[in-house]
Amino acid sequence: MSRPLGGQIQTVLGAVAPDAIGITLPHEHLLIDFKVMFAEPAAAADKARTREPVSLANLGWVRQNFNANLDNLRLQDEQVAQDEILLFKQAGGRTVVDPTPTTIGRDPRALARIARATGLNVVMGAGYYVAASHPPDMDRRTVDALAREMIADVASGVGDTGIRAGLIGEIGTTYPWTDNEQKVLRAAVIAQRETGAPLMVHPGRHPAMPMELAKLVQKEGGDLRRTIMCHLCRTIADVRAVIDLAQTGIWLEYDLFGMENSFYPYNPSFDMPNDGGRMAHVLALVAAGHRDQILLSHDIAYKTSLVKYGGYGYHHLLVNVVPRLRAKGVDDAGLHRLLVENPARAFAFA
Ligand SMILES: [Zn+2]
């Protein structure tokens, strides 16, 4: 396959040169229907709260039990998405990557409208999330058919929209991972090889998963220097294991900035680190020589993360975290590397 996009970044409005993307959020959801993550609470008193709209009256409960309220799992208002992402632009941001996969609310036309209305570059994803979100006929789909679909999303656009994906992912896996998830990842690696697109993988919640996934990507002929491993802070507590993972050349994504709760309903036995813990990992990785493999984002997928609903918003990294990183010794060149140059390399097509 020819590589007309070689070296460029593919946004929903067309190709952009890497040196023009500016400050970039590599992993955010502008629009998502995340009800696949809904967990019904056991207590009768809590059940009633699952159907309430997010409000000040229930905000504390919803923040703590963020996948137990259906309204919280829906980001489907384009105007709200625009208003919220403009705060990132006002803080200096220029590009946002939305890797929402096919069956959880990806909306190419809406992303293009948001890009036009805000003047921001928006990069869209392709492929499938975790097994719970797979289409009912996934058992019968072949690796080749899945790969062809992802390749078409990147090369010619989604359906008849003409709007092209700029990455393969986020490809979802659980722990232990399912046969269909493995099949989707194999297809995603084929799509990466064929198109030169970056690949983004959401690991199952076990510290050994990211390395297992990296090995599979490598075995299937994928390029780990253009593969992004998401959600490291909720997966690997020991930074030495992240340094081991870094030896593979894979991108290390710390994409849950702004999640300051330690209770993590998807894995209650694991204490979620806060931004202080995330920064400690980032600084340790920089000290170990891996600055050029780090990506930073918020992975906003819940209403409670939005300013309108009492959250820190898409501009949190720029307004709240960057000054703290600077105070901890990351200089302007280092910040530019983390926020601009690294995403520019990570999302450029081969
Ligand atoms: Zn995500």
What features would you highlight for this structure?
11 helices, alpha/beta, 350 residues, three-stranded parallel β-sheet, 2 domains, TIM Barrel
Q: What report would you give on this structure?
A:
- The protein is of the alpha/beta class and 350 residues long.
- It has two domains: 32-74, no CATH class; 78-346, Alpha-Beta Barrel (TIM Barrel).
- The chain contains eleven helices and twelve strands.
- The strands form four sheets. A five-stranded parallel beta sheet has the order 8-9-10-11-12. A three-stranded parallel beta sheet has the order 3-6-7. The chain has a two-stranded antiparallel ribbon with strand order 1-2.
- β11 (251-254), α9 (275-287) and β12 (294-296) form a beta-alpha-beta unit.
- It is globular, with a radius of gyration of 19 Å.
- It binds zinc ion.
- Zinc ion (ZN) is lined by residues 27, 29, 99, 170, 299, 301.
- Zinc ion binds next to loops.
